[in-house]
Write a structure and sequence with these properties.
Layout: H1 2-19, E1 30-31, H2 32-43, E2 46-48, H3 51-54, E3 58-59, H4 68-77, E4 81-85, E5 90-95, H5 99-106, H6 109-112, E6 116-118, E7 126-129, E8 134-136, H7 152-155, E9 162-163, E10 173-174, E11 183-186, E12 189-190, E13 195-196, E14 201-202, E15 211-215, E16 230-234, E17 244-249, E18 253-263, E19 266-275, H8 283-292, E20 309-327, E21 332-353, E22 356-378, E23 383-401, E24 408-429, E25 432-452, E26 455-477, E27 482-493, E28 498-510, E29 515-526, E30 528-531, E31 545-548, E32 557-569, E33 573-588, E34 604-619, E35 623-637, E36 645-647, E37 654-664, E38 667-676, E39 680-681, E40 684-690, E41 698-701, E42 707-708, E43 712-724, E44 730-738, E45 746-753, E46 759-765, E47 770-778
Parallel strand pairs: 2-5, 11-16
Antiparallel strand pairs: 1-3, 4-5, 6-7, 7-8, 8-15, 9-10, 11-12, 13-14, 15-16, 17-18, 17-47, 18-19, 19-20, 20-21, 21-22, 22-23, 23-24, 24-25, 25-26, 26-27, 27-28, 28-29, 29-32, 30-31, 32-33, 33-34, 34-35, 35-36, 35-37, 37-38, 38-43, 39-42, 40-41, 43-44, 44-47, 45-46
């Protein structure tokens, strides 16, 4: 407890000490974006603009004695911009030379705009909407500790309530949920693989994304197949943009992104990224190697007595995307997108035993490919429709030739997911909109396993088809201060003959210009999940496999969640508090990654979590700082076990994050700390083994999750600078260090029987101090 208190005091000291930094003296003219942000908060309005048209504009702020129309006229007279009020809540800003061409589509915008409650949440480019979701726009992204670019899956872990218990982007836990309980979408395509390097790097190219929406609770009724969060990534811009390209590289790989404007109404974009880890062994790669491959077949084997053992590995990853956007008319737009993700590992193992040289080869590959098309039309000023379809294919394949014997194990997990979605939006009046839709999904999952010695083969394929009808309303009342969005999703699963009813609710009320209250609620379900049969499956690297629910031995997972919070937001301060309760039923022990007495027991249960998330942020002109604190209590309930209730494997009771960020012109610097209490572990009850079966000694354990690991503490740093050579040409240089203090954190621990029949503990440690350098050229 003294350690916790001392570190909390350290965080608070760092936070409040940062507030004493004197803000630099303001110049006469300030960036127009800062003025717009101030007006947005003061008058509760939303501005819509093209970033390139205002990013370089600075102006003397208008007098506080002027009213809103007078201030807008003042700004228009001193810039080359036009400010046009669509209604009491929206103002569109356009360049005067483009006003005539843009004006025809202005009337459509109040259908398309999202109301922002918080403009800068944690960093520039991250905002919070009235719907309770977070929106990340990488083009406007500032900087966060340890990151040199807007990696969506790393960025979202800075948000209170979102973390990774094992430091990976392939195991993101939202309010104690497992990774597979999150829904990841890229341009409407469901993604079953989210990480490169088995979880240390995001699989989504950060130079491509236009908008990322993250919902922890109160998600739209149009989202299904998730009992936890939704991460929706869109790479299509709102307008046809000019041609532009970029190339970049860091100490792991290189990437490019090229956008080609074919005409005023169409554009094509392509991107690609590949690691050079199979050619160059950089310091960054070596740190990643040590973290990912520890306690796997790559770095050790089960028989500790084997000598003269040698391993050579060849690892690389790549991803690529292509997309086409075409505005058929002023009211109709078509688009198509394709994505491919791949990880490959080839492993040669050699050993000499009894004078005989044995050579074996094992390999693992993991891919996710997907494509989507969509067509959206504005039938009138008040009626809009969209039809879209997607196909996603995931494959995990491994071949394990054991070096200590002649056994070969082949394993494969394949997912084919396809969907069709119809949406319609009807504006009944300026304050009320009705959204309706229909979704069809068909998902097939195949699991294959073959062992040659002794001969054994198993192949299981299952298919589920579902139909969903959606209806939700958006209501704005009291001059925009009250926002209510109730929704209903009605699912029918054909093969299981199952009906599932899922209501959703989003509520936001502004008590005044600074304070707002929020209530979110939802019921959700999902039929897919990831389980672990054996910890050594798929070379022990990607040991989870996707399966489908049968509503008997594998239930449909269902969640109930409600949260109530408030926000205090001014030009200098942001204070946000969320209190939530979440319950998920239908989980299975194989889906929770047990490595104790429950590892080979298959039973069903649920978990409940009660928690609070606090964020305090202080803004200066060029410097800002924030500190967050999470308090969470999460417990399993497996009725057939004694005891039936115990701590969740992914529970983190206390968590504190702090960051100080300096952002001035082209220079960005960020320093941050991350501390949390240790994860639960199950310890042996005695040092003696259970020898009732001499051929297979067993460990006697205490009750599950009877103890916690030691605290986790990490300091991260990042900095970047951009040279603007012209309006379209920039050179960006970034530098980051993860785990600056090189703290050796234990992130998991399990126990096993050694070769001499003793109990040994196996620890997995966090990433060591890891520097990285990134260079990006925009042209």
């Amino acid at each position: 407890m003294k350690k916790i208190i001392s570190r909390l005091l350290l965080f608070l000291l760092l936070f409040f000490a940062s507030q004493s930094v004197l803000a630099q003296e303001e110049s006469t003219a300030i960036p127009l974006k800062e003025i717009l942000a101030s007006l947005s908060r003061q008058y509760q309005i939303q501005f819509n603009f093209i970033e390139d048209e205002i990013v370089s504009v600075s102006v003397i702020p208008p007098s506080s004695e002027l009213n809103l129309p007078q201030k807008l006229k003042y700004l228009s007279n001193r810039t080359s911009l036009t400010f046009e009020s669509i209604n009491s809540r929206y103002v569109v800003i356009t360049s005067r030379k483009q006003t005539a061409t843009v004006h025809d589509s202005i009337k459509d915008l109040p259908i398309l705009l999202q109301e922002t409650v918080i403009e800068k949440y944690l960093a520039s480019g991250i905002s919070k909407t009235a719907e309770g979701s977070l929106v990340i726009k990488p083009k406007k992204f500032g900087i966060l500790p340890g990151l040199t670019e807007a990696d969506v899956l790393q960025t979202m872990q800075q948000v209170p309530g979102i973390y990774s218990a094992d430091e990976t982007v392939s195991n993101i836990n939202v309010r104690s949920g497992t990774h597979d309980q999150n829904l990841f979408l890229w341009n409407g395509i469901r993604m079953f693989q989210t990480g490169h390097f088995f979880g240390l790097i995001s699989a989504f190219n950060p130079s491509l994304s236009q908008k990322i929406t993250i919902s922890k609770n109160g998600t739209s009724a149009f989202y299904g197949e998730s009992v936890s969060s939704v991460i929706d990534i869109s790479s299509f811009p709102e307008h046809i943009e000019n041609s532009a390209s970029s190339i970049s590289s860091n100490l792991i790989g290189a990437q490019f992104n090229s956008k080609i404007k074919i005409s005023d109404n169409s554009s094509f974009q392509v991107s690609g990224r590949r690691s050079f880890t199979d050619w160059i062994n950089s310091p960054t790669y070596q740190k990643y190697y040590n973290r990912v491959f520890q306690n796997t077949i790559v770095t050790n084997i089960e028989n500790n007595e084997i000598s003269n053992y040698h391993t050579d590995e060849k690892f690389y990853f790549y991803d690529f995307t292509a997309q086409y956007q075409h505005k058929i008319s002023s009211r109709t737009e078509a688009s198509a997108a394709f994505i491919g993700i791949n990880n490959s590992l080839d492993l040669d193992q050699k050993m000499t035993s009894e004078g005989i040289l044995r050579t074996r080869n094992s390999n693992l590959s993991q891919q996710n490919f997907g494509g989507a098309v969509s067509l959206k039309t504005a039938w009138s000023d008040n009626n809009f429709s969209k039809i879209s379809g997607y196909l996603s294919y995931y494959n995990l394949n491994s071949r394990n030739e054991a070096v200590e014997n002649n056994q070969t194990l082949v394993q494969q997990n394949t997912v084919t997911d396809m969907g069709l979605r119809l949406e319609n939006r009807h504006m009944l009046n300026t304050n009320l909109a009705l959204n309706t839709g229909y979704q069809y999904n068909e998902i097939g999952i195949r699991n294959f396993e073959n062992i040659d010695n002794p001969g054994f083969s198993k192949s299981i394929k299952e298919v589920l088809r579902s139909h969903s009808v959606i209806s939700e309303a958006e209501m704005h009342y009291l001059d925009g201060n009250l926002f209510i969005k109730p929704g209903i999703r009605f699912n029918y699963i054909e093969e299981l003959e199952k009906f599932i009813f899922e209501p959703r609710l989003q509520f936001n009320y502004k008590l005044n210009q600074e304070i707002s209250i929020e209530a979110l609620g939802e019921l959700k379900s999902q039929t897919t999940s990831q389980v672990i049969d054996q910890q050594q499956d798929f070379l022990g690297l990607e040991k989870r496999r996707w399966i489908l629910a049968d509503d008997h031995s594998i239930p449909i997972q269902k969640s109930q969640q409600i949260s109530i919070g408030f926000t205090y937001n001014t030009s200098e301060w942001l204070i946000s508090l969320d209190n939530f309760y979440k319950k998920v039923t239908g989980i299975t022990t194989p889906s929770q990654a047990f490595q104790n007495q429950l590892e080979f027991i298959k039973i069903n249960g649920d978990y409940r979590v009660l928690g609070s998330e606090l964020l305090i942020q202080k803004n200066f002109d060029r410097f800002y700082s924030w500190i967050s604190y999470n308090l969470s209590s999460s417990e399993y309930d497996f009725g057939r076990l004694i005891p039936s209730q115990f701590a969740n494997n992914f529970q983190i009771v206390h968590s504190v994050n702090w960051a100080g960020i300096y952002d001035w012109n082209n220079l960005k610097v960020a320093l941050g700390t991350n501390w949390h209490s240790g994860r639960p572990e199950t310890t042996p009850a005695t040092n003696l083994l259970d020898l009732s079966n001499p051929a297979k000694p067993e460990i006697r354990y205490n009750f599950p999750n009877n103890k916690n690991l030691s605290d986790y503490f990490q300091v991260n740093f990042s900095a970047s600078y951009c040279w603007n050579w012209s309006s379209k040409t920039q050179l960006e240089l970034g530098f980051s260090v993860l785990n600056v203090l090189n703290k050796k954190n234990t992130i998991s621990r399990y126990y096993r029987v050694s070769s001499n029949n003793t109990i040994e503990s196996i620890n997995t440690y966090s990433l060591e101090r890891t520097p990285n350098i990134a260079v990006k050229f925009n042209f």
